[in-house]
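User: I've been trying to design a sequence by hand for this structure and keep getting stuck. Would you show me what you'd pick, starting by listing the structure so we're on the same page?

Assistant: Good idea, let's start from the same input. This is the structure you sent:
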């Protein structure tokens, strides 16, 4: 069975809900902050190529 994008996002949603139910908001916050830092770093690196 091939997993498509919808199934991937459904799995992510379930993982987030489970973390919130298990009172692991701090871990979730750390993951989200790291993802934002990565996104900002990518944008910073690409700044020179934007015209």
């Amino acid at each position: 069975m091939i997993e498509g994008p919808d199934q991937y996002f459904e799995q992510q949603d379930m993982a987030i809900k489970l973390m919130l139910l298990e009172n692991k908001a701090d871990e979730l916050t750390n993951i989200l902050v790291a993802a934002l830092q990565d996104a900002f770093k990518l944008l910073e690196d690409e700044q020179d190529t934007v015209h």
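That's my pick for every position. To get oriented when you compare it with your attempt: DSSP finds two helices and no strands in the chain. The chain has a mean pLDDT of 84.
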